[in-house]
Amino acid sequence: MIFIARRLVAAAVLLVIMSGAVFGLLYASPGSAEQVLLGTRVANEETRENIRQRYNLDEPLTTQYWLWAKDAVRLDFGESIRTGEPVLNAIKDRAQLSLRLGAYGFAVAFVAGIGLGVLAAMRNRSGIDRAVVSLSVVGASSPAFVTGVFLLYVFAVLLGWFPVFGQGEGAMDQLWHLTLPALTLAFGAAALLIRFTRAGMITALDQDYVTFARARGVSEGRVLFGYALRNAMIPVVTASTVLLAAMLTGAVLIEVTFALPGLGALLVDSVAFKDVLMVQGLTMLLAAVAILTNLLTDVLYLFADPRIRYTRVAP
Amino acid sequence: MTTLVGGPRARGRRRLLLRSTPLTVALSFGFIGILLFLAAFGPLLAPHGPGSLNLATGLTTPNGEFWFGTDDLGRDVFSRTIYGVRYALFGPVLIVVGAFVIGNVLGLAAGYRGGMLDASVMRWVDLMYAVPGLLVTIVLIGVLGASYLLAVVVLVVLTSPFDTRVIRGVTLEQRSLPYVEAARTLGLPVRAILFRHIFPNILPISFANAFLNFAFSLVALSALSFLGLGIGPGTADWGRMLSESRLLLFENPAAALAPGGMIVLTATSMNLIGDWLYDRLADRGRAR
Amino acid sequence: MRSNVGPLRGADGNGSLLEAVGLAIHSRIGGDQRTIVRSLDLSLDEAETVGIVGESGSGKSMTARALVGLLPSGLSARGEVRLDGNNILDLSQRELGRIRGSEVALVLQDPFTMLNPVTRCGDQVADGLVDAAGRRLGRRARREEASRRLAEVGIPETVDRYPFELSGGMRQRVAIAAALAGDPRILIADEPSTALDVTTQREILALLKSLQTSRSMALLLITHDLRVAFSTCDRIYVLYAGSLLEVGGAGAVEAEPLHPYTLGLLLSEPPGDRRLTELVAIPGSVPAADDVATMCPLAPRCQWAQSKCEVSHPPLNPVADNRLSACLRIDEIRAEMHSLRHNAERPAVVHHTAEASVPLVRVENLEKAFADASRRRGSPPVIALGGVSITVGVTESVGLVGESGSGKTTLARCLVGLETPTAGVITIDGVDASNYGSLSADQLRKLRRTVQIVFQDPYSSLNPLRTVGSALKEVLELHHKGGRNLEGGVAELLERVGLAASLSRRKPVALSGGERQRVAIARALAVQPRLIICDEPVSSLDVSVQAQILGLFRTLRDELGVGYLFITHDLAVVRQVVERVYVLYRGEVVESGPVETVLDHPQHAYTVRLVESVPRSASQQRPMR
User: What ipTM score was computed for the predicted complex, to two decimals?
Assistant: First the structure.
């Protein structure tokens, strides 16, 4: 369990570094911090003074960071420069949609990606394999906004099966509206999963332990799942950080493409309006999610591979 | 896991190479060839200027004069798609070259020297892997101000870890092979070992990687353009065109589908070639 | 129940448990079809132990795979493999699944890759267990039975362990237990002991033999080592380039091989009990089956070959009682072969220049510890060398014997500066070489010209992109040897190691393993060193090629006066080359002295065990007259 403890410490250190970088965004923007925070508001002495007070601009930089970080721990990132709404509230309002999109997309990608990856590996070099591989190459080469536009064109414009934009009313209708965006997200993610699963599975099927299992009559089901897939999943777990990064990027582009008011769209809007405080809040959230996923991956890895779990050495 | 690349029987191999090149890869090479041609001579072929407005015509669907129709400002989509090739190649090539240089230098140094240098380089690489690159770019460009050059620089920094990790891995592997150890024992200078022995053996790998990086960079740059963060408005860049025309899906779908299709085709070709190169190298006894 | 031991040869077909008739194996890569095995007849009786002996490329492993219907993709088999009235080659994978485990099981070579790394040993054994009705057992019954099965192979305590926690020998035992879980009547073992240390090898072979007897099952042993086959098997099939060359009872073949190849193989294998005057090797290297399809496969390498040997592929013919040979001229050359063997086995006298000579290399209390990268940070370092002292005199040849983990390779690497020792002193020709990093350019150059190294693996010893000539030229240039005429220098070096000068234009892929190792030796010779460290220089080579390289080492020493530090696990090999030997065990020298004293009268318990593990045939185990 020392392994976990060390990872926890590393994650904490990373979080602190990231927070420093995020705090620095305010000063990285062109113009003075005061000017940036002022945004498009009228610049009289009173508002300037208010801003300096509210964001401790007169304090030394380290103190400023400290005060900012203290608030950030309580998830208080200040108020949006654009709307004056607390950043946390804005994030809360938008998070649900993004989470649903992510969960829906991931579920589809997971089932399709692992399933097709295993299938392609078992039928290596066959027509099915080539088709699956081609699909995954196209998926990895298609940015989410292009996939989105093509799906919209085919399923919404040509066939009229799905709505073009909007979120829908009621649970079923919302799911309906989310289907094209989720499929778009899943297309890119599944491409990665197919790639990792297929490669892992082909490698595993080629190993001596699989041949030996067959050579002593172990049932084919047990060979495929207990021997091959079990080992093939280890590199897939390791690659899940790459998957997360791809899905986060995809989600941002998808929300813009389908005009969904999620966190991604909020980030893009805030960036466009130079709403630095909102960007800080969102970036911090993003960093935390990435670091947590990393941590989760490490724990999963621990379960997947006993060689990491135990450190006993051969006598 | 012995060697990367062999040499003699080259003629026989070349013949085998032609025969064993999959159709998809051959088509990819052909497509890249066409792109290069269009980048060079496109302006001579395009029937209209990239920015020439045709307000009288307005929005049209594909027809004899405008093969892909026009967008809402009456600009010819076909011509703009051809002009877009230059943007599609220029940025990614810069990024690929930048990442190639950084990746090879850092990878070779870290892999060969080891120790503290290796540890710190790999720490950095791990960090960059965990970061959703495009989002970081969005934030940075958003905060620092939109600029194409900045986008390219940020993407070089974000892409080079992929090269670095791969090059470092194969360098480490080559370094422990007896032929390198023999060279060290014979007293060959480090320079000679690195550039005469190791580098030529890992060059094919970085070459394969360059194609994969190209695909990634193209997708990333178009995404930035799509979000309005890369190249300026009105430019005949595929991402920008898609972004400006995606609301025209009912009126003239070609205005959005043509640039989108080009992005996917180009990236797919590059990925197919890169994967194919990797597989060929792996067939010679190298794991990825 | 089962019948008693069948007749010595079951070729009549009635008593055979497993029988292959005209088994042919081909591979197809792209459009090219290549022959792996040409046409093979083989029979295995109940409770019999049969050996298939062959070098790499003979097709022996693929034969083993074909017998259980498990050829890798791209390979296909034709002919017949009869088992219980079925032709294995015609069965579906599902039908084969029922036969494998219960009728026949196959154990592979490498214990480190054969077991599923993420599953406990007990569970892996249990995966092959079924009850009388062929169903999987219940949870508790599985565990109990798995434990019992692991006890049968001597390691009941491993039931809850993962493979990575076990040593190679223990893993091989787990694999054997797993293979026997379905109580097969036939066990096929493909080089079951080759990947293991010598002392463990013997234990595994003994285990297989005792299981074979106690379960009265048939055992088919695939091996490259004639000595192993002689000591374990009842009958032997000698396979070469996809064709059977000789078949016969183990004792009879050992007493008098009836094919030049078998004789050559026997003579190439140096004996562990004496040094030979001359090492007899089969010249050249093993050809591909298709390259010798229309002639006797051995013809290009055979000293007795005549034109009739080169016009057709000779069949296996009965040449004596229960003996088959594919040699067309066996009747004519039988007497000649006999006298060749008689002469070749004469022992040589070892000349001792040893102790008296001036020391060239002196190693004092050398220690080396590695931080173990596979374990957590802060865990104690692994001690590779724990205070080793050795000396090597000028022009002297010294052996360093030990198993994996003994530290012998680490010592070699410290000597040439590929590792830096943790403590201790290395002095080479008066220069303190304990830390290469702190030496001046002049001192370094001097050391480089004094000591060179030849590695184990000839395939990665050469840069695949550069021609043989450029590899040698580079060294000559660097050390200003060979004068102005670099081409001439290259040609001379190649000639020294027995290669044609025309080879200098080739790249390593176009060379055989033996040729590559010769080039690696030539490269070391280019700086005209006084000592060459040879780190297992023949252990990756085929037996017939091994003897050539050992012969080359002897010639070079006689002609150039170069000394060797010869590192090996193989006592028979070390005996042929060196005068003095150090025995290394777990990072310490446990015994040293003149080679025949140490090997004939070992003092330390470990040396005794090592000497006893050398495989010997039944006749050799008897005391010599």
Answer: 0.84
